[in-house]
Design brief:
Blueprint: E1 3-7, E2 11-16, H1 27-42, E3 46-51, H2 62-66, H3 70-75, H4 77-86, E4 92-96, E5 99-101, H5 103-109, E6 113-116, E7 121-123, H6 137-145, H7 147-156, E8 159-161, H8 162-168, E9 173-174, H9 180-193, H10 196-207, H11 215-225, H12 228-241
Parallel strand pairs: 2-3, 3-4, 4-6, 5-7, 6-9
Antiparallel strand pairs: 1-2, 7-8
């Protein structure tokens, strides 16, 4: 198995597990991501994505990429899987240790929240291999760090270290390697304490193009205003306040 899955009631931990290839993303991994997404689309839960043996993912599998054709490129093999990850109903947390390069970086960009260790090295060296970062980096990265910084990273092919990634806002926090997964679970705990429907609606609003705002918030809020959970939670809040 290239993707080890641990399921809990309110979350799933998916660990990229090809240590002999530094967790390079191959077709088997892509297939496993699609299978996992199907599960999480049917039963929404927070997803934590991480890697084994001190590496997130050192890239896509170059041996497979070398043999792919123009038709393969147009199919967007990795891109379609990462889009599906991005569009999951509940939040996706990338817990990144060590290298997250190429396709590994693009999988991390697809997450809603990214945390890392001090050994992080993240970037897209694709132009050095005669290709472009075509699995989301050219449009997701500008949304995350802005056009100027995305151009710097993608056009030079250089990798950021942990402090630079933190300063750029590419990751939101740094943790010692032995505490990384616990930090991801702590974030998942905070998410689990909130109303799942409100969380899903917030993620949907965040993913909606600017032209559809504020209409999308108003419709989503209207649905939540009629929710029994909204009434229950607000009543509980007022009762605690009045004690």
């Amino acid at each position: 198995m290239t993707l080890h899955i641990e399921e809990q009631n309110d979350r799933v931990v998916a660990t990229l597990d090809r240590p002999e290839k530094r967790n390079a993303i191959d077709q088997e991994t892509i297939d496993a991501l699609h299978e996992l997404c199907a599960v999480l689309e049917a039963s929404p839960r927070t997803l934590i994505v991480t890697g084994s043996d001190g590496v997130f993912a050192a890239g896509a599998d170059i041996a497979q990429l070398r043999d792919r054709t123009a038709d393969d490129a147009r199919r967007g093999i990795n891109a379609m899987a990462f889009i599906r990850v991005r569009e999951l109903p509940m939040p996706v947390i990338a817990a990144i240790d060590g290298y997250a390069l190429g396709g590994g970086a693009e999988l991390a960009y697809a997450a809603d929240i990214r945390i890392a260790t001090p050994s992080l090295r993240i970037g897209n060296p694709e132009t050095g291999l005669g290709i472009i970062a075509a699995a989301g980096a050219t449009w997701r990265l500008p949304e995350i760090v802005g056009d100027a910084r995305a151009s710097d990273l993608l056009l030079t092919g250089r990798a950021l270290d942990a402090e630079e990634a933190l300063n750029w806002g590419l990751v939101s926090s740094l943790h010692p390697a032995e505490e990384l997964l616990a930090a991801a679970h702590a974030i998942a705990d905070r998410i689990a304490a909130n109303d799942p429907m409100a969380t899903q609606h917030t993620k949907r609003a965040l993913r909606t193009p600017r032209a559809q705002h504020p209409a999308i918030e108003l419709e989503l809020q209207a649905e939540l205003f009629e929710s029994p959970e909204k009434h229950r939670r607000m009543t509980a809040f007022l009762e605690r306040k009045n004690r």
